[in-house]
Specification:
It is a single chain. By secondary structure, the chain is an alpha/beta fold. The chain folds into 2 domains: 2-163, VC0802-like (2-Layer Sandwich); 185-222 and 266-386, 3-Layer(aba) Sandwich (Rossmann fold), CATH 3.40.50. It has 11 helices and 15 strands. Helix 5 (115-134) links the parallel strand 6 (101-107) and strand 7. Helix 2 packs across helix 8 and helix 6 (185-195) packs across helix 7 (212-221). The radius of gyration is 23 Å and the shape is elongated. The N and C termini lie far apart (57 Å). Residues 1-7 have low confidence and may be disordered. This is RNA methyltransferase. Residues 52-164 form the THUMP domain. Keywords: Methyltransferase, RNA-binding, Transferase.
């Protein structure tokens, strides 16, 4: 059985990430100081220290959640789960009776095929142990617990972790307004990372919607740390190191700048949206994110889009008939988009998120890369086209 304490020099963690972004997330975690970043399915395992774990919450753009692994133990039955939980760690340190908690479970083991039942077993093990030790027990709070415990079952093993994030980390806090089918912020950040854009060449979105792709790109290029505007569950953990946390907050805040790291000016970031109400949302979101001056957003149809002097990178998340719009009605949009790109964007790269191969065919362009991505449960491809 392995036990990890958050005041130790080595913390084992799991970053839960959007499917398809595991490699990009591993690279991001490594750049933020993690060691041994290993890709899993929809997750990345990593090693860091307490300062690094705090840093990830403030600066990592791609994870949904960051889990601190407390213990692993054999689990091939509900009784092994119950006993293993009670012996996993010193629960008097983590969960005194006055603290509230919740349990979430994934995976399965013999006799533990339903996540709700598995979570209930963990809850029972903890409150029974508390009653034995103190004659009192913690309350379950599903909405705002002091401690959020995560159980994963698989391969005859149970892994118990603490969720340091609380709510999903894709919520940056700037997007009070959004279009009909918005990308989650962390997925948008990951898509931009996959393009390799670094702010040195123009970036344009001729169908920008409420602006998430462009806003995430600008925040990345200008060093706006995504976690500074919110609170995290780990701030309520026992023995939370507030001094170290403030040190990491200051370091994250100091990254913000008005130019690229080299000192050069940020290249133009241009968006176009034909719906005035949605364009207003994009302006509001950019203002809330603190990067409105870096974006050039205009009202108009993508068919009339003229890019800034290039070469540069086009990014696009057009509707693909799963959530908004009908497929027959969308085919002319794709055809016109492809025509506009070929006529006006020679020398540029186009990256387009597609959830419908039939519609993408209307572009009459051949993709050089097809990266599988899941967008809200829809099987998509992040398609790369070199425009000649």
């Amino acid at each position: 059985m392995g036990i990890t304490e958050p005041n130790s020099t080595s913390i084992s963690g799991i970053a839960v990430v959007p499917p398809g972004l595991e490699e990009a997330a591993a690279a991001e975690l490594t750049a933020l100081g993690c060691q041994a970043a290993a890709r899993l399915r929809r997750a990345v395992r990593f090693q860091t220290d307490l300062a690094g774990f705090y840093r990830l919450h403030l600066q990592a753009r791609l994870p949904f959640r960051l889990l601190l692994e407390l213990a692993q133990f054999p689990c091939r039955s509900k009784d092994e789960l119950y006993d293993g939980v009670q012996r996993a760690v010193d629960w008097s340190r983590w969960l005194p009776p006055g603290a509230t908690f919740r349990v979430d479970a994934t995976g399965s083991a013999p006799g533990l095929n339903h996540s709700h039942y598995s979570a209930l077993q963990v809850k029972n093990a903890l409150v029974d142990l508390q009653r034995q030790q103190w004659g009192a027990r913690s309350s379950v709070d599903l909405d705002d617990p002091d401690l959020s415990i995560h159980l994963h079952l698989g391969g005859g093993e149970a892994a118990l972790s603490l969720d340091g994030s609380g709510g999903s980390m894709h919520r940056r806090g700037y997007r009070a307004a959004m279009g009909l089918a918005p990308l989650k912020e962390n997925l948008a950040a990951g898509l931009i990372a996959l393009t390799g854009w670094d702010g040195s060449v123009p970036l344009a979105d001729p169908l920008c919607g409420s602006g998430t792709l462009l806003i995430e790109a600008a925040c990345m290029a200008l060093g706006r740390a995504p976690g500074l505007g919110r609170r995290f569950a780990l701030e309520r953990w026992p023995k939370f190191d507030s001094q170290l946390w403030q040190q990491e907050r200051r370091a994250a805040s100091s990254l913000a700048r008005e130019t690229l790291p080299s000192g050069e000016a940020l290249a133009p970031i241009v968006g176009r949206e034909q719906d005035p109400g949605v364009l207003d949302q994009a302006h509001s979101n950019a203002e809330a994110a603190g990067i409105a001056s870096a974006l050039e957003l205009s009202l108009g149809d993508c068919r009339d889009f003229v890019p800034p002097p290039g070469p540069g990178i086009l990014v696009c998340n057009p509707p693909y008939g799963e959530r908004i719009g009908e497929r027959d009605a969308l085919e002319p949009l794709y055809a016109d988009l492809g025509r506009m790109v070929k006529e006006r964007c020679g020398g540029w790269s186009l990256w387009l998120l597609s959830g419908n191969p039939e519609l993408t065919g209307a572009l009459k362009m051949k993709a050089s890369r097809r990266i599988p991505i899941s967008n809200g449960g829809i099987d998509c491809r992040w398609l790369h086209y070199e425009v000649r």
